[in-house]
Amino acid sequence: MPILINLHLLAEEDLHLVGELTPQEVEFELNDEMIRVDSPLQYDLAISYSGENILVQGRIALQLNCECVRCLRSFQELIEIDPWDLLVPLDDEDSPEIVDDCVDIIPYLREDALLAFPRHPLCSVECKGLTVEPPTNEATPGTSPQAEEKSSAWGELDKLKLK
User: Fold this and answer.
1) Domain count of the chain?
2) Does residue 144 sit within a domain?
3) Is 83 inside a domain boundary?
4) Full DSSP string of 92-138
5) What is the dihedral of CA 82, 83, 88, 94, to 10 degrees?
6) Residue 142 within any structural domain of the chain
7) What angle do CA 50, 85, 121 make, to 5 degrees?
8) Does 36 reside within a domain?
9) Domain hosting residue 42, numbered range
10) What is the mean pLDDT of residues 25-41?
């Protein structure tokens, strides 16, 4: 569902839009396996004319489900752009397509939200990454560490005499 701004209505009075859009409506196409968008994008926008442009001001927010690139722990991160400002030119080569006197601002919302996504999501700045415990070298009862070392594959290779 697009967010359509009717230019005739906007000429008469400013608009105030509040709501949310599902990730499917915003069409987030992520190729990042460390970030998932499962919650809706929330918006609170004031829209008005500014000369030959549409001025959109307000706030957008989105909750992301992320996986830390260092420790692989799952966490949530809130992306919030407040204030969010957008100037949509209507008489420029960068003008959006106007269909039935309406302009869709979803592409602008999507672009700015995607630009706010973390490049490498971290659960915290202090994250040290995966912790690997050193293997314990426990000898089985009744054997000495020297006997275990000699019976290992490396011990057998040490016996080879190559000339």
Assistant:
1) 1
2) no
3) yes
4) STTPPPEETTEEE-HHHHHHHHHHHS-SS--S-TT------PPPP-P
5) -60
6) no
7) 165
8) yes
9) 4-116
10) 89
